[in-house]
Design brief:
The complex is a heterodimer of chains A (about 900) and B (about 260). Chain A has about 900 residues and is an alpha+beta fold. Chain A is about 15% helix and about 35% strand. In chain A, the strands form 14 sheets. Chain A has an 8-stranded parallel β-sheet with strand order 32-30-28-27-26-38-36-33. In chain A, helix 2 crosses helix 3. Mean pLDDT of chain A is about 95; it is low at about 1-25. By secondary structure, chain B is mainly beta. Chain B folds into 2 domains: about 15-30 and about 155-250, Sandwich (Jelly Rolls), CATH 2.60.120; about 35-150, Galactose-binding domain-like (Jelly Rolls), CATH 2.60.120. Chain B is about 5% helix and about 45% strand. Chain B has 1 helix and 20 strands. In chain B, the strands form 4 sheets. Chain B has a 6-stranded antiparallel β-sheet with strand order 13-2-14-19-16-17. The longest helix of chain B has 18 residues, at about 1-20. Classes of the chains: A alpha+beta (about 900), B mainly beta (about 260). The interface of A and B includes residues 475, 499, 779 and 781 of A.
């Protein structure tokens, strides 16, 4: 085992161990981080062996907090998994950790506990030869009571068994321990310590805000191990910015568990918590009691915020104001460490990135994060949805599993319930099975803690106690939005209008070609060996030089889609919000690079946060229009709306619009009525229209909408002159839908042929505008393509208007085309409309290409050029551009194809 | 006086409407929304009809030899109401692929009214995107052949164009209509407890879907879709539980 790099840490930890500090309020703690003895147990036999009885010392060493992967423990994987990142060293089974610990003599009479902030999944403690405690929570710290098993003044051999096997028959994909995202690690993370408490101590402190009278109900649970009556006081201290309040109450009792509830009026100076003003307060309770034998002291503290969450008609209400949730699905994607961070800095970075991209909400999909996530969400005003590690058939009858979930739910509510950011609780993801059990959990949550709204399951059967619903569909129809349309006059409002607020589930999911440059960034316990396989395949197919282009073209399309998806959900006035899947990549389930950020939350360079905030922010200018592509004699008509869920109404808002060309020159402009735009809704602010006469040159225009100086959004439209007389054959150029004798004759005579086979006559895949949903490995169905790379500098596009990626002008082309599978084409041939294949296949695909054939020149375009041509200005413009090209001296294909290649993609009669 | 009487009548009707059930008065036959049929010796998934989600009728002639006949389906996504001629036999679903038939020996037209609303499941079948009934259907261990598949255009047909007639007695799937008076439009729930599976429209606007297997038994009617005065509700019932009425509720209805 290689431990050199850890030496410094061990020394530091050792020094910490010697510091037995007396904390305030009678609590004493010993830090347990540092070097521990270690032993693997892949045979799962040590527990049943005689070793513990003989106090056998473990022979290896490990440093905690940490996980086995950090020390290269386990099976060295030789594999290159395709469907996920590959874990370098796999370990699943019991693992043993050991240390000699001297219990301070002055701890006599105290309650003694071991605390591990986070571990997977079952932890057991042996004191010398005996197993004395077992805990199997997933989502909360493990606390073991050692009292009575250790003797103050004596040195004990403490052996810990961490067992990361699935302790219950639960779904293997849940994000608390799936190999698909954070790995199912073995180890201990975060704070780990030995604690000594006086026999009368505070076991729990919960704070329930009431914003109607600026008060909190404080609920303390006192544990009394004195076996006698106690009397004393609980001194509360509440502190915040310019705020300080103290209150003392008398407490007395003799039961072993004793609950005290106290209402504390906080006065007018207390401030509410929300996303815009995340005011936090700290409350501490100092308990001082007198028992028959001694004076006991204990202090417990927690953060809280003055906020109330309620179920509104269509929205979640925070402090009686509707919020619209602009969220991200968080799936415990942490490839650098292999585990979810437990430190504030890591989570603060993520919350600030969320804010930077205009989001205010994060759904923890089938897992519950560590405390640091809540602390940082509290601090930066991010609304959290928290779930248990529950998924799929986990609700099918299994009493052991049910009991685990019952315990886990209570533990989550107790451990994190005070955090104001924790507004939504859902049992888990897409659950099937016995919904009476799901209703039981949901109703139980509602009954015991009113600080959150509850929901039974995402995207599955509704239950009576639901207070909100995250789903792809309601009984009113689909509320999912996975992709955009070339028009914006639609929404999911009516479908969202049910008895509870509805949040659109897992929106987006548009696949981007992997960025192989990321391979080097996987320096942690998992490696992107799948990327290596994909890259090798691309290289074998002669297109490695295009890898980056595939990435940036498909990435740009995902940005186009996410703008459309998010705006559709912002236009949905009766939607409670959306959860994008996801702002960052998901490295499992086939590997889904759907993010505009990589798995490390680093930008892929596809869009800036500023540009993203134009369509995802508390205030967004929206436009409803019926199409994106126009003839130059048409009129553009739009309805302007403003989505405003900001701090306040916008008084006397100046609303203006403009139309600019590619150089930024303003071609049209106008103003809408100056008006006050209310808050907490989506509001129509006026219509505008402009004619496109005089726009003689085909071009992309930008329609811009401004609210005052600071709010701006824009949309691309394309304007093309109407063309007739398309596809007219001449003596030199033959336009044909069949590769027939005439075509062959033209070619043999050294002439030109433009071959536009009908899609129904071409083998290959159905063409579509959208890039594949999620990823083509998990969902191996249509289209199995991830967008197109447009060879924008090719002269065939001289009179079309395009960039390297597809945008909405490509809609009618791509929805009426066929993707030619070109593996039989010569290596050097690159289609000018190149379709990007699934990265586990990496074949050359195209819709349009050119080649030398016979003695002539051939251009192939697998596009329906018959259907509804009146209403397809973009296709007509492309044909016009092709016509100009093939009739010019620029038409000089370099690569030769033979007839076999042509026949290879045609369906023979 | 006449006006007063009308108001009185209105008031009574309105009160009655809310206190009592709304009776169905008209029925529209399903044949009006049939797509083009497709015949096949073997059973085909509905995708072969170009239907990825929605409703399809599967039909074949069968000979029932014994009173103890069992129908067994290999794959069903997601639900089918099973009829022999016009008699409902029961339902099959992904978790319930076998059905005991209740008819006397004889020759019948076996009708499976199949519904798929595009649920995604997570399991080994996730890579399999077929919908409808496929694989084999066996009647007493014998494979049933010679199928006719017909798309039911429940969602794409404009229900304003449905031709209704008096309610009569119907056991097969179809559309039911009822009218009721509303004085002050406000949000309320259409309670479809007791109904089988289907969809509902109000005043020509799509309202939502229902299924007796769901806990949720009601669909919200937004006030905006209600008219002051006479309103019209149409319900498409796939598994015809032969309900004669429905109710309104001020709160959502769950089982």
């Amino acid at each position: 085992m290689e431990l050199k790099i850890q030496v410094l840490r061990i020394v530091c930890s050792f020094m910490m161990m010697c510091l037995v500090g007396n904390l305030s309020g009678g609590t004493v703690e010993i830090d347990l981080s540092g070097e521990w003895g270690f032993q693997t147990d892949v045979m799962d036999f040590r527990r049943g062996s005689l070793s513990p009885r003989y106090n056998h010392k473990l022979q290896e060493k490990i440093v905690l907090p940490g996980i086995t992967d950090d020390f290269q423990i386990g099976y060295k994987s030789p594999y290159r998994h395709i469907d996920r990142l590959t874990r370098k060293y796999e370990y699943m089974g019991p693992a043993w950790y050991q240390r000699e610990i001297t219990i301070p003599a002055e701890w006599k009479g105290k309650r003694i506990f071991v605390y591990f902030e986070r571990t997977h999944w079952l932890s057991s403690i042996y004191v010398d030869t005996k197993e004395i405690s077992k805990v199997d929570y997933i989502s909360v710290p493990h606390v073991h009571d050692l009292t009575g098993f250790v003797t103050p003044g004596k040195t004990h051999l403490i052996t810990v068994c961490i067992d990361n096997r699935f302790q219950y028959n639960t779904h293997k994909w849940n994000h608390a321990h799936t190999e698909f995202t954070q790995i199912n690690w073995n180890g201990i993370l975060g704070e780990m310590k030995l604690m000594a408490l006086d026999p009368v101590y505070l076991d729990d402190l919960q704070v329930y805000p009431d914003i109607s009278d600026n008060s909190v109900k404080v609920k303390i649970q006192i544990k009394n191990y004195s076996k006698s009556k106690f009397t004393g006081k609980a001194a509360f201290s509440i502190q915040g910015d310019n705020y300080n309040l103290k209150k003392e109450i008398a407490v007395s009792g003799k039961d072993s568990v004793f609950v005290v509830e106290e209402k504390i009026l906080l006065g007018d100076n207390i401030r509410l918590w929300d996303e815009f003003n995340p005011h936090l307060y700290n409350i501490s309770c100092e308990l001082t009691t007198q028992t028959e034998e001694k004076t006991c002291q204990h202090e417990k503290a927690t953060v809280f915020g003055m906020r109330e969450v309620k179920q509104g008609k269509n929205h979640v209400l925070i402090n009686n104001r509707p919020v619209h949730l602009r969220g991200n699905v968080e799936n415990a994607v942490f490839p650098k460490t292999g585990y979810a961070p437990v430190d504030d800095a890591s989570w603060e970075r993520l919350m600030l990135i969320m804010k930077d991209y205009g989001m205010n909400h994060m759904r923890f999909h089938s897992w519950c994060p560590p405390k640091a996530a809540f602390r940082m969400a509290d601090k930066h005003g991010i609304y959290l949805e928290v779930e248990m590690p529950m998924w799929g058939r986990d609700a099918e009858p299994d009493e052991d599993r049910y009991n685990f979930f019952r315990r886990e739910q209570l533990a989550i509510l107790r451990e994190y319930g005070n955090h104001p950011s924790f507004i939504l609780y859902c049992n888990g993801n897409e659950i099937t099975g016995n919904f009476d059990f799901i209703e039981e959990l949901t109703a139980n949550g509602r009954a015991i803690d009113n600080r959150h709204l509850y929901s039974g399951s995402t995207a599955r059967t509704r239950v009576k106690s639901d207070q909100y619903y995250v789903s792809q569909q309601t009984n009113k129809g689909p509320v999912k939005v996975y992709e955009g349309l070339p028009q914006t006059n639609w929404d999911r409002s009516a479908e969202s209008d049910v008895d509870v607020p509805v949040i659109s589930h897992e929106s987006g999911q548009r696949c981007i070609y992997p960025n192989f440059d990321e391979i080097a960034n996987f320096t942690g316990p998992v490696e992107a060996r799948n990327f290596e396989v994909f890259r090798e395949m691309l290289e074998a197919n002669g297109m490695l030089d295009q890898a980056h282009d595939f990435f940036r073209a498909s990435g740009a399309l995902t940005v186009v889609e996410y703008k459309a998806v998010i705006e559709a959900l912002l236009r949905s006035g009766k939607s409670a919000g959306f959860q994008l899947l996801s702002i960052n990549d998901f490295p499992g389930q086939g590997y889904a690079p759907v993010g505009i950020l990589d798995p490390f939350w680093e930008s892929k360079g596809l869009i800036t946060p500023e540009k993203f905030r134009e369509f995802c922010a508390p205030t967004v200018a929206l436009l409803r229009y019926d199409k994106s592509v126009f003839y130059a004699n048409e009129t553009f008509t739009a309805k302007a709306e403003v989505y405003n869920y900001s701090r306040a109404a916008i008084k006397n808002a100046k609303i203006s619009w403009s139309v600019t060309d590619n150089s930024g020159k303003i071609l049209r402009k106008g103003r809408l009525k100056t008006q006050t735009i209310a808050n907490d809704g989506v509001f129509p602010v006026g219509d505008f229209t402009f004619n496109l006469r005089g726009i003689d040159v085909p071009q992309k225009l930008s329609v811009n909408l401004f609210i005052n100086e600071d709010i701006k959004n824009s949309w691309n439209i394309w304007v093309y002159p109407p063309h007739t007389l398309l596809m007219k054959s001449t003596d030199e150029v033959l336009y044909t839908r069949e590769f027939d004798e005439q075509a062959k004759q033209y070619l043999s005579q050294g002439k030109k042929v433009v071959f536009c086979p009908m899609p129904t006559k071409v083998k290959g895949r159905k063409s579509t505008f959208h890039n594949h949903f999620w990823n083509p490995i998990m969902f191996a169905w249509h289209p199995m393509t991830i967008g197109c790379l447009i060879h924008e500098n090719h002269p065939v596009f001289d009179h079309f208007v395009t960039t390297y990626h597809t945008d909405w002008q490509w809609w009618d082309i791509l929805e009426n085309a066929k993707v030619i599978e070109m593996k039989n084409a010569p290596n050097g041939l690159r289609p000018f409309i190149q379709v990007i294949d699934s990265y586990d296949n990496n074949e050359k695909l195209g819709i349009g290409f050119e080649a030398k054939a016979g003695n002539g020149k051939l251009l192939v375009l697998a596009l329906d050029t018959e259907k509804d041509m009146e209403n397809r200005p973009a296709t007509r413009q492309l044909l016009m551009s092709i016509d100009n090209y093939v009739n010019s001296d620029k038409f000089n294909p370099e690569i030769t194809v033979n007839e076999d290649m042509i026949q290879s993609f045609l369906i023979s009669e | 006086m006449k006006l007063l009487l009308t108001i009185k009548f209105l008031l009574i009707t309105v009160c009655v409407s809310f206190a009592q059930e709304i009776r169905l008065t008209e029925f529209a036959d399903l044949k009006q929304i049939y797509g083009k049929p497709l015949s096949s010796d073997d059973l085909l998934p509905m995708n072969e009809l170009g239907v990825d989600f929605g409703y399809v009728l599967y039909e074949s002639e069968v000979l029932i030899a014994s009173e103890e006949s069992v129908l067994k389906v290999e794959n069903i996504r997601d639900f089918a109401a099973v009829y022999l001629d016009n008699e409902l036999q029961g339902a099959i679903a992904d978790n319930h692929k076998q059905l005991r038939l209740k008819s006397m020996p004889g020759k019948y037209r076996l009708r499976l009214y199949v519904e798929n609303i595009g649920r995604i499941t997570y399991g080994p079948e996730i890579l399999d995107n077929l919908k409808g009934v496929f694989g084999e259907i066996q009647l007493n261990e014998e494979i049933i052949k010679h199928w006719t598949l017909t798309e039911l255009k429940v969602k794409s047909f404009d229900i304003k164009h449905l031709k209704f007639s008096d309610i009569g007695q119907h056991t097969t799937p179809g559309f039911y209509k009822a009218t009721f008076l509303t004085r002050r439009p406000r949000d309320k729930y259409l309670d479809l407890s007791g109904w089988g599976m289907g969809e509902a429209w109000i005043n020509g606007n799509y309202l939502g879907s229902f299924w007796e297997q769901e806990n949720q038994q009601s669909i919200l009617i937004p006030a905006a879709l209600l008219r002051k005065g006479m309103n019209e509700i149409v319900v498409f019932e796939l598994k015809n539980n032969q309900q004669k009425s429905f109710k309104f509720s001020d709160v959502p209805v769950f089982k």
